[in-house]
Amino acid sequence: QVQLVESGGGLVKPGGSLRLSCEASGFTFSDHQMSWSRQAPGQGLEWISYTSYSDNTIYYADSVRGRFTISRDNAKNLVYLQMNSLRAEDTAVYYCARGARPNYWGQGTLVTVSS
Amino acid sequence: DVVVTQTPLSLSVTPGQPASISCKSSQSLLHSDGKTSLFWYLQKPGQSPQLLIYDLSSRFSGVPDRFSGSGSGTDFTLKISRVEAEDVGVYYCMQGIHLPYTFGQGTKLEI
After folding, report:
1. Dihedral of the CA atoms B34, B38, B40, B46 (nearest 10)?
2. Do A111 and A12 contact (CB within 8 A), yes or no?
3. pLDDT band with cut points at 50, 70 and 90 for residue A115
4. What pLDDT sits at residue A108?
């Protein structure tokens, strides 16, 4: 069955960096676009980025463009989200998902940006 | 960005009764291929979201047939024919045609 497992979340100071990873299994990873969404505490969902099958096409929401970088390693079935210049408003649970329009979601990893 | 607006924001339903959630987008979600790129998700308490409906009205794998999606253009509806206790949670619609894709605010369904 499809499984997506995020890791790499934690507490980071404003201005700091963090790299999230998402390991996929149960499907042919290279056949699918992948995306990241996030959910601030007690808030709704925000779609933030996607990558095509081989990183040829990438898109970012304005809220993270220039600070976050999505990438993937098809040999390792991994998708990453490099987050730089983090702000308090980036505090959220970050979900990776299969598809630019998500169909399967991981369990999420919490990122807390606080001094 | 396309604005997606859901109503109501909360809903209390008796088991066995129907429920309906409305979703409106600020732009048409009709693709040139004839499909309407509107998705419905359910986030059960303490869980990650799960896909219920894609392309306006197609049920995702394993989704019970009491869930149905309908609408056109900019106005959409999710209907649950007979609510069950396991249906509690927050329902989100998402438009998947205009980047960045955007979610509605969510509708909390309680029993």
Report:
1. 140
2. yes
3. very high
4. 97
Q: Which residues of chain B have pLDDT under 70?
A: none
Taking CB atoms and an 8 Å cutoff, what residues of chain B touch A100?
96, 101
Tell whether A27 lies on the interface with B, counting CB pairs under 8 A. no
| Interval A1-27 mean pLDDT | 97
CA distance A55 to A58: 6
Distance from C-alpha of A34 to C-alpha of A94, rounded to nearest angstrom: 13
Cβ(B90)–Cβ(B43) below 8 Å: yes
CA B38 to chain A, closest CA, distance in angstroms equals 10
Token code pair at residue A62: 């304005």
One-letter amino acid identity for B18? Answer: P
Q: How far apart are CA A76 and CA B33, in angstroms?
A: 34
The pLDDT value recorded for residue A84 is 98
Residue at A27: amino acid letter: F
Token look-up 């497992």 returns A5
Contact between chains at A45 and B37 (C-beta distance less than 8 A): no
Please say whether the beta carbons of B70 and B58 come within 8 A: no
